[in-house]
Give the backbone structure.
Amino acid sequence: MSDCIFCKIIVGEIPNYTIYEDDFALAFLDITPRTKGHTLVIPKVHAENLLELDEKYAEKLLVTVKKTQEKLNDVLKPDGYNVGWNHGKAGGQLVPHLHIHIMPRYNNDGGANMHAIVNNPGDESVEEVYKLFKK
Ligand code: 5GP
Ligand code: ZN
């Protein structure tokens, strides 16, 4: 998509700090890092989210995430990671090109875990929710 900033990064119109890339995806440092080495991994085709991404790219993407983590391990030696992506407005997605956040974590860095994102499970029990899948 021509007005997509991450597509512009892929073709080099907007500069970036690439730390790993292959034929299908690019891993570059987030411009507003939340931790040291905060990295974004994006598919090299435009897709707003995983559901819109061609499966050929989707199945490669996790391999790129793994390779990027190996690189981060080599260079920054973090103590852990949070890895994930924001999907849609409700999920807090700002840039409409799928990007997987890799946030290296360091002992006593003051951060929380993914459970801190939201805690509002609704009134239905897990069993009631499960039954919705059986209809
Ligand atoms: P999200 O869409 O998941 O809420 O977050 C978008 C992320 O993209 C943010 O962490 C933001 O700092 C990052 N970002 C936005 N524009 C650019 C850019 O031009 N270059 C880089 N490297 N990161 C960007
Ligand atoms: Zn794009």
Q: What stands out?
A: Residues 1, 4, 6-7, 46, 97 surround zinc ion (ligand 2) (CB under 6 Å). The first strand starts at residue 18 and ends at 21. The chain has one domain: 5-132.
